[in-house]
Amino acid sequence: MLKRIDLNGWWKIKFDEENQGMELGWPEKQPEGCLDIHVPSCWNEVFPEYHSYDGTAWYYKEIYVAPQELFERVTLCFEGVNYCCDVFLNGKQVGVHEGGFTFFDFDVSQLLQSDVVNLLVIRVNGEHDQWTLPPRNPDWFNYNGIYRLLYFDVSRAIYINDFRINSGMDGLVTIQANIIRNEVEGRFLLFAKISDQLGIEVAHQQIEIGDCQGPELPVRIEMQIPSPRLWRLRDSYLYSLILELRQGTDQLCDRVEKRFGLREIRIDGQKVLINGEEVKLVGCAKHDEYPLTGRTVSRLQLVRDYDLLRQMNANFVRLAHYPHNRLEHEVLNELGIAAISEAPLVFLQEEQMTNEVMLEKAKRMLAEMIRTEKNETCIIFWSLFIECDTHLPSTKRFVKEIVEYVKSLDATRLIIMASIRPVEDVTYDYFDVIGVNYWEGWYQNAPAEQAVDWLTIMARRFPNKPLLITSHGWDGIYNERSYVEKIHWSEDLQSDYLRRVADIFQGFKNIVGEIIWNFADFGVSSWDHPSQPPIKSPRYLLRPLELNHKGMLDFYRRPKSTYYDMKEKFAEWQEYIASPLYYGRGLRTRIFSNRRLAGNMAAFDFVDKVQKLLVQKDVLNVFFASASSQIELIQGLLRNRMFVEWDRINAFQLDEYINACPDTSYGLAHWIKTHLVDHLPFRSFECFNGRAKNLTDECKRYSSIMGEREIDLACLGIGENGHMAFNDPPVADFADSTFVKVVELEETSREQQFRDGAFKNIEEVPRQALTVTIPGLLRAHSILCVVTSSFKSIAVWKTLYGDISTACPASILRQHPDVALYLDRDSAVLLPVMKGS
Predict the structure, then answer these.
(1) Do residues 637 and 758 share a domain?
(2) What's the rounded Cα separation, in Å, for the pair 129 and 17?
(3) What is residue 740's three-state secondary structure?
(4) pLDDT tens across 443-486, in order?
(5) Cβ(48)–Cβ(120) under 8 Å?
(6) Same domain assignment for residues 495 and 524
(7) With left for phi above 0 and alpha for psi between -120 and 50, is residue 791 left, alpha or beta?
(8) Are 174 and 166 a contacting pair, CB within 8 Å?
(9) Do 319 and 517 contact (CB within 8 A), yes or no?
(10) Domain count, the chain
């Protein structure tokens, strides 16, 4: 555009409750009895008597345009009108539009007159039925009117009709533009310039525009940004693109400008990658709704909202359930917050998803949405269906056509939906990421732990796809507290439930993040969902104060206690992708805020390693330690069992007490069987016989089995005295000539066994054991070592910073080429990194 003529401000409005304005000639002349209304705004918030009115209203504005302000082409642009509108200029119909959330425009070049008073009339109707998108009674308040900006854009007869920015991690930026050249003569040039955040030009290009063979001329420009800086989550960097269309080198015919970031999105197995780095996506869904202004928003309101979301440690937002304001995308781009953008395909039932008219209507709205938002860096998902009848085979064609259509419009982003019946859904194969809404807790009163069974089913159905929790939540009314009993509708029960279910989500390797419903409490019109039977309970039992109270903040943006609890959980998600610290030859150390996360991460890495190895080998051999510090790792393996072919793995025991065998209750083989082996279909389990009559022969037997096989992976712990297996400092030998030996247990080691709870008193702890030696342990190609509790903090420090010696046997790990050490905050308390040095 060369110029933008602002049409916002004071208008006149006339409500047409009898829908008689067309017959009375209102398109040509403003009727009597009009009220004043500021545009943009929602009439529901302006006029209390029309708060719930969804019918027809007429908008009127007189417009004067000076001759020097107009050029050959003028478009009337709307950024949001809900739901249908008819537009008239000087008594002539300009066009009609259906859809409450997308940008649209009309060419008024032949109707807009200069140097006279023009009358612009807009008829708006907010009614919904079963054939609108969304259908009637969506679960949010139906704000109506011209609620976003509108304006004239002015340009020459030759103009930039559309453009697309594609960028890569290497800094290569490709611009695809469509030029409309309406039979104008002359030499035209397209200039492209990219500047960095300081405004310094970093790349430029120009091409000559030839004659159009048809109405559009496609143009492609490539520019290379030197030393590119990438757009990352919560670490935004934006470049600015300017396209100028000129006649010769002087007269400017059209100009567009857009800020963008360099980022690529792709899937790698169960992971989502942005710019080649794994991400965990955590945040909230958010309606485009604000106190006092409804769906009309200012930049200041958005900045405040997203500052609150960012302080919550969120990096992700689901822009529910329709295209949001362009201003919102700008703020998200600037803050480095990723987003799901959704089309209003909400609660669609079979009758709608088998209807050709609805299919074409959905495609048109998606085309409008993607045309507007395709250059927004923050948007990484297109969400296409929200709690629709995608569990029915009859709807598969509708879904398939929509997905294919969206991919034809934009293949650079991921496609997702939010299914309310994920276990039954028949359309997931069409989507890049499995999106699931989990509501069994709040609406079915199911305990949080039930999510484990449900997620296990989903992981088994789709073991090779990432899964995103697209929606889950719990109602909590602001300042309703119940510290002890934790009653429904209280902040405390909301916090308690969300914390517990978040812990479960974090334990599944295939889950790439969670979205909480919702960022803030929001208004609802009713709970008369077309797919639900009539409600007999009083409405206030379901939506007190006509609000959905699942927000982390209340309607007026006051944080609930849940906000602060989930702030901690969102931070925990990011611990999974934090960079490790390196020690010695190949010792990678990760520090987690608690032992649950440390065990989860070790389990995830175990699965990754085993999956890659089983591509290369038929059978694997793996050491497993038997100690309470391994519980979280083992629980993680059991939870993610569906991702591993356990029948191709031989399990090996590391150590055993003398006089103990697999049937001995206090025995270590019994511990491994009870906690791990009995729950998974291992190919075999090799264990010691501590009751063997000849312990020397038993050592030779076990050494022989080990010696015949490669040890692919070892899952270890470190004792309080630095031992691995039962290689205590007095008996540890880095140069042992055998793989297995009999040892005397050091008193520190015996005390640890008692403290772990396996024995009633210290006297019961055996004094001798069989153990795999240090050289035997180091035969493992890869080692995963989980160490938790403050009792082991000294041993951890010695392992990483002390001399490499048998005084701390675990220090030898610094000489192994592939070791991953997983610590909790307590075990790492003495490390310099925990002291801020």
Answers:
(1) yes
(2) 17
(3) strand
(4) 888 899 999 999 999 999 999 999 999 999 999 999 998 888 88
(5) no
(6) yes
(7) alpha
(8) yes
(9) no
(10) 4
Predicted confidence at residue 835, as pLDDT, reads 60
Residue count of the chain, please give it: 837
DSSP letters for 432-477: SSEEEEE-HHHHH---TTHHHHHHHHHHHH-TTS-EEEEEE---B-
Nearest to 65 by CA among 119, 11, 27, 103: 119
Domain shared by 285 and 183, yes or no: no
From 575, 605, 636, give the residue that closes a domain. 575
Residue 558: give its domain's CATH number.
Answer: 3.20.20.80
Where does a domain end: 155, 173, 200?
155
Ramachandran category for residue 745: left, alpha or beta (phi over 0 → left; psi -120 to 50 → alpha):
beta
pLDDT tens digits, one per residue of 266-310: 999 999 999 999 999 999 999 999 999 999 999 999 999 999 999
Q: Which CA distances in Å does 406 have to 99, 365, 368, 661?
A: 18, 11, 11, 61
Residues near 697 by beta carbon (within 8 Å), at least 6 away in sequence: none
Provide the token pair at 679: 């729950």
100 contacts 344 by C-beta, under 8 angstroms: yes
Determine how many CB atoms are found less than 10 A away from the CB of residue 249.
9
Ranking 505-514, 593-602, 661-670, 787-796 by mean pLDDT, the lowest is 661-670
Cα separation, 739 vs 736, whole angstroms: 7
My answer on whether 300 and 367 are in the same domain is yes
Which amino acid appears at position 808 of this protein? C
Rounded to an integer, what distance in angstroms lies between the CA atom of residue 511 and that of residue 514? Answer: 8
pLDDT of residue 28: 96
Q: pTM for this structure?
A: 0.93
Distance of CA 804 to the CA centre of its chain: 43
Rg (C-alpha) for the chain, rounded Å, is 32
Backbone angles phi, psi at 249, to 5 degrees: -110, 5
Reported as a pLDDT band with limits 50, 70 and 90, residue 763 is confident
> How far apart, in whole angstroms, are the C-alpha atoms of residue 602 and residue 585?
20
- Could you tell me if residue 260 is left (phi over 0), alpha (psi between -120 and 50 degrees) or otherwise beta? beta
Tell me: pLDDT of 529 over 90.
no
Q: Which amino acid is at 364?
A: R
On whether both 450 and 369 belong to a single domain, the answer is yes
Query: Per residue in 149-168, pLDDT tens?
Result: 999 999 998 999 999 999 99
473 in the same domain as 351: yes
- Look up residue 516 and give its two tokens: 């909480």
Long-range contacts of 453-462 (CB under 8 A, 24+ apart): 454/422, 454/423, 455/504, 455/505, 455/508, 455/511, 456/639, 456/642, 457/423, 458/422, 458/423, 458/434, 459/508, 459/510, 459/640, 459/642, 459/643, 460/642, 461/423, 461/428, 462/428, 462/434, 462/510
Q: If you ran DSSP here, which 8-state letter would residue 232 be given? A: B
- Report the distance separating Cα 280 and Cα 196, nearest Å: 28
Q: Is 322 helix (H, G, I), strand (E, B) or coil?
A: coil
CATH number at residue 720: 3.40.50.1360
Segments forming the whole domain that contains residue 747: 581-835
For 525, the token pair is 């019109």
In terms of C-beta density within 10 A (0-12 exposed, 13-18 middle, 19 or more buried), how is residue 768 classed? middle
**Residue 358 and residue 364: Cα distance in Å, rounded?**
10
Residue 424: C-alpha distances to residues 420, 454, 457, 464 (Å): 9, 11, 10, 18
- Please give the pLDDT value at position 518: 94
How far is Cα 737 from Cα 742, in angstroms, rounded to an integer? 13
**The token pair that represents 482 in the structure block:** 């119940």
Nearest residue to 517 (alpha-carbon basis) of 386, 408, 333: 386
Q: How far is CA 734 from CA 54, 721, 750, 809, in A?
A: 80, 16, 22, 8
Calpha distance 813→486 (Å, rounded): 47
